[in-house]
Design a protein that fits this description.
CATH class of the largest domain: Mainly Alpha
Number of strands: 12
Largest sheet: 5 strands, mixed
Oligomer: single chain
Helix content: 40-55%
Transmembrane segments: 36-60
Radius of gyration: 28 Å
Pfam families: p450 (PF00067)
Number of domains: 2
Protein name: Cytochrome P450
Keywords: Heme, Iron, Membrane, Metal-binding, Transmembrane, Transmembrane helix
CATH superfamily of the largest domain: Cytochrome P450
Number of helices: 22
Strand content: 5-15%
CATH topology of the largest domain: Cytochrome p450
Cofactor: heme
Shape: globular
Distance between the termini: 100 Å
Structural class: alpha+beta
Strand order of the largest sheet: 1-2-8-5-3
CATH architecture of the largest domain: Orthogonal Bundle
Length: 524
């Protein structure tokens, strides 16, 4: 039997319930302490403000038209968690795959994944507008994070620093020091010949030893001794750990209230590594200041301007820090990536061996100039820096107050914008089969090759580009000429790595078989 609902009864009960709620509120106001009433009022106001602000950020903010996760639109907590997770490369690429070429990463931040955005964000613009570096990313202070050429946001200040160091990185100055690179390249070859007889080797260590020793010699007049001692110098280990210190510093500024508590929020080993690296950088450059090398090194040009530019000891340390990380870690990353992909793509490896071994009769014939004349070697290195860029994340800039167009899209003023290298170079619109290692694309020129810019572009382009090309060409050519490498438990070593601005590289174990008679050992 169908039940008949008595709506009058429900209505009467509802009125009675509302009356009871009203009586309760009335009694609370009459009996509760005044402080409690104020507390409820404050909480209500705060809730109303947060709700209203959230709605404004999502639907009425100047960036509300750009797609992205709702959690990113309303708070920088999303951005903070992305950075400290070490998974930012993979997270941001996935966001671009879901939302398109432009993604809103924060309440006031956009990420681009288009080739044309390079020139609009980083290069000299036709309209004369300048997008300065985001000071919340390039964080500076007077001690551990003292300003240097990479973190200087002011264009004029940066131009002054660049002028100070430009002679050291000219093609002529670097070619004059090619013998330093050759010396350690031959030392690397000798170290691998020695190791080949003893079983598998971790190429990550060998490349770190070599590139840091080269940088030490060229920047400070003495190496770190890692290649000679066949072990990682303690400072190099700290340098590699200190990269996380920089990333955490960036993440903290996404939530400014946390700055006051950062010493409690930072992982202890990360904080210690950052401070130790800064102190040891200062000791290194001050020690170099007391030396009188026979020929100029990179530090010579900085020390020569020390008094004129009133460079403090901490600023000297910061310049040393920038030289060490940018001048060594990125080259080591490229070389590790190259041999990962060569051993995973045997046809490419065979073709490169044929080119290099056909061009030289002995390893000592390999020079920067002759290696630069090998088109397939250059294509392999270009493809490595595309598929496994040394700096895969975006380097943020801030739009001018009046706003500007970026790749045809109007972006409001004071917006943080960046182009994430990994996302743009793995975009199938720019590169066909972007996850496939295919150096031929650089010879065929059918893809959007200008989408890959591992050294950036414009006035803030990497000063070390000439040194990097000389170094990686010589080292890659010599190793391909002398050895046949094979990866232990073959896999894509690059896949899934953590990244804190720079890659956190795990061990890369390989066997090496000599392809040539062992040359005369190099004394390091």
């Amino acid at each position: 039997m169908q039940q008949i609902i008595n709506f009058d009864s429900f209505y009467q009960k509802g009125l009675a319930c509302l009356s009871q709620v009203g009586d309760a509120i009335h009694n609370f106001v009459d009996e509760a302490p005044q402080a409690a009433i104020y507390g409820v009022a404050i909480l209500s106001t705060a809730f109303l403000f947060v709700a209203t602000h959230t709605i404004w950020l999502m639907y009425f903010h100047p960036l509300s038209a750009f797609p992205g996760p709702k959690s990113a639109a309303i708070s920088n907590i999303f951005n903070f968690r992305t950075i400290v997770s070490g998974r930012s490369v993979w997270i941001i690429k996935a966001l671009h795959e879901k939302y398109g070429d432009v993604v809103r990463l924060g309440p006031n931040e956009l990420s681009f994944a288009t080739a044309d955005a390079w020139k609009d964000i980083y290069d000299r613009r036709k309209d004369g507008k300048i997008l300065i570096k985001d000071p919340k990313f390039y964080r500076v202070d007077d001690t551990y994070r003292a300003k240097h050429i990479v973190t200087a946001s002011d264009p004029e200040e940066h131009a002054q620093m660049r002028k100070m160091m430009s002679h050291a990185f000219s093609s002529k100055a670097l070619l004059d020091q090619e013998d330093v690179i050759q010396h350690y390249a031959n030392g690397l070859v000798d170290a691998i010949y020695e190791r080949c007889t003893r079983g598998p080797m971790n190429l990550v260590d060998f490349f770190n030893w070599t590139t840091f020793d080269i940088l030490g010699e060229m920047a400070f007049g003495e190496s770190f001794g890692s290649l000679k001692n066949r072990q990682t110098d303690s400072w190099i280990a700290i340098v590699l750990d200190s990269v996380k210190f920089t990333a955490w510093g960036v993440a903290i500024l996404k939530l400014p209230l946390l700055v006051h508590f950062e010493k409690y929020i930072f992982p202890k080993h990360v904080l210690a590594a950052g401070h130790t690296h800064a102190i040891q950088s200062k000791n290194k450059i001050l020690k170099r200041a007391e030396m009188h090398p026979e020929r100029p090194d990179f530090a010579s040009y900085i020390l020569a301007k020390r008094e004129a530019l009133e460079i403090t000891d901490w600023e000297l340390a910061a310049h040393a820090n920038a030289l060490i990380v940018a001048g060594s870690e990125t080259s080591a990353t490229t070389l590790n990536g190259l041999f990962n992909y060569l051993t995973n793509y045997p046809d490419v490896y065979a073709k490169l061996k044929q080119e290099i071994r056909g061009a030289f009769s002995v390893g000592t014939e390999i020079t920067a100039a002759r290696a630069a004349a090998l088109p397939y070697l250059t294509a392999c290195l270009e493809e490595t820096m595309r598929i496994y860029p040394p700096i895969p994340n975006g380097m943020p800039r801030v739009t001018p107050p009046e706003g500007c167009f970026i790749d045809g899209r109007w972006v409001p003023g004071n917006t943080v914008v960046s182009l994430h290298m990994w996302a743009v170079t793995h975009n199938p619109v720019n590169f066909k089969e972007p996850n496939v290692f295919r150096p031929e694309r650089w010879l065929e020129k059918t893809d959007r090759l200008d989408a890959s810019k591992p050294f950036l572009v414009g006035p803030r382009m990497c000063m070390g580009i000439n040194m990097a090309w000389i170094e990686i060409r010589i080292l890659a050519a010599k190793l391909v000429y002398h050895f046949d490498f094979e990866m232990i438990n073959k896999r894509n070593w690059c896949e899934g790595q953590q990244c804190y601005t720079l890659w956190q590289k795990p061990a890369q174990w390989m066997t090496g078989t000599p392809a040539q008679p062992r040359p005369i050992p190099t004394e390091l």
